[in-house]
Every structure is written in structure tokens, then in C-alpha cells.
Specification:
Elements (H helix, E strand, L loop, with lengths): L7 E8 L22 E9 L4 E6 L5 H14 L3 E10 L6 E3 L1 H17 L8 H5 L5 E3 L5 H70 L15
Helix pairs in contact: 1-4
């Protein structure tokens, strides 16, 4: 079984399906044609002791989040995983203005400008890019989006595992190189160890000689004296 790194990234693109089961074409470079809905599903994983899932999904996709969470728990054992889903629409779609979000932002902007005495007006382009500021009037049913996304999850997981296995092969190569260096360093240490032990033994011998000199042997005199 190949070693997998915990670091990886994968992204897959898909498109909604017609009620009759036909696929809606996605032009090269993403997006959609004729106002059709396309999406991009991204998985990003890093090391973590347990399986830690974080989702960044469009509003109103709670059911999809539960399905994604269940599938990822079946396929992954651990890691910090960020799951992102972005919807891609063209200008040919019909949009409805979310007056509550847009009006609240404009009111807050003008209140802040008045409080700090600033002559400024909100940028409408920036306001309309706020999440939820515009709702597509011809969105497909949630069930169609869930089915289209779930059909792409296994492909995203395969791509993620491919990248993790590639990272794992790099880790194996680096570990083997480090093991070779450690083995060479061990041989050098062993050579120094023998030299150091020999030098230490010689020094210890002479220290003992000078610190504890042997007592001289007294010869017995037989000259008859006292």
C-alpha cells in the first residue's frame, strides 16, 4: 500500500443536468453556456490527528453538506479537510435582488460615513458581489444540484489521493536519503568512539599513576646494625 501524505488538493468541475437526464455543456475555462449552472468542488487536506471537516458551501445546501460529510467519513480516516463548493453562472441568468442584504449593507455604509464625516457612497459593483445579494430566478431544484455534486465526489477523492500519494513518494525518497546519511554518520561516530575511548583510558592510567604512586620497597639490612 503506498504511503500517502496528509497534504493534498483536488478540484473537479461539473454541471447540472436537464430534467430529462441530458447534460448541460460547460464551456472551456469553466462557467456555463446559455445561462446554465455549473459548479466547482474543491478538497484541501492537511495533517490532523483526527478527521476534521470544514465546509464552505452556498447558502441553502444543508442537505448537501450532510451527504458530503457522510461520504467523506466513509472514505477518509483523518486529516483537516476543507470542502468548498462554488456555483458559476453567466450573465444570461435572470437574477433577483435580495433587498434585505443589499439595503442593510448600504444603510450600514452610509451610517459609518456619516459618523466619521466621510463624503462617500457605496460601490454598487462591490455590493452586488456580496454572498446572497443576487439570487438566480431560474435555479434548478436543490435535489438536482445535490445529485450532480455527489456524482463528482469520488472523482475529487481520487484526485486528492493521487496528489497525496505523489507527496508520499517524495517523503519516502527523503526519508531514505536521510537514513543513508544517518548510517554514514553512525560509522564516523563509531570510529571517533574507539579513538576517544583509547585516549581516555591512557589519560586515566597516567592520572592514577601520578595520583597514587606505588610505595617503594624497603630492602632489609643484614649488616648487624640496630
Amino acid at each position: 500500500m503506498p504511503i500517502r501524505s496528509m497534504t493534498g488538493f483536488a478540484q473537479v468541475r461539473g454541471e447540472m443536468q436537464r430534467p430529462d437526464g441530458g447534460k448541460l455543456p460547460v464551456p472551456a475555462g469553466g462557467g456555463q453556456s446559455n445561462g446554465r449552472l455549473a459548479f466547482a468542488l474543491s478538497l484541501k487536506s492537511v495533517n490532523h490527528r483526527f478527521l476534521d471537516l470544514h465546509f464552505r458551501l452556498p447558502a441553502g445546501t444543508d442537505s448537501l453538506e450532510m451527504q458530503l460529510r457522510r461520504r467523506l467519513k466513509e472514505k477518509m480516516g483523518r486529516g483537516h479537510v476543507e470542502v468548498s463548493l462554488s456555483l458559476e453562472r453567466t450573465t444570461s441568468d435572470t437574477f433577483l435582488l435580495n433587498r434585505e442584504i443589499v439595503g442593510g449593507y448600504i444603510a450600514a455604509f452610509r451610517a459609518a460615513a456619516a459618523e466619521f464625516s466621510l463624503a462617500a457612497e457605496p460601490d454598487l459593483n462591490a455590493v452586488l458581489r456580496l454572498p446572497g445579494a443576487l439570487d438566480a430566478a431560474n435555479d434548478s431544484p436543490d435535489g438536482d444540484l445535490e445529485a450532480a455534486v455527489m456524482a463528482k465526489v469520488d472523482e475529487a477523492l481520487d484526485r486528492l489521493n493521487q496528489m497525496r500519494e505523489e507527496e508520499g513518494r517524495g517523503i519516502v525518497r527523503e526519508l531514505r536519503e536521510r537514513m543513508v546519511h544517518l548510517a554514514e554518520a553512525g560509522k564516523i561516530v563509531q570510529q571517533h568512539r574507539r579513538a576517544v575511548l583509547q585516549n581516555y583510558s591512557e589519560r586515566l592510567f597516567w592520572i592514577c599513576i601520578f595520583a597514587f604512586p606505588p610505595e617503594p620497597t624497603r630492602s632489609r639490612c643484614n649488616c648487624g646494625g640496630g
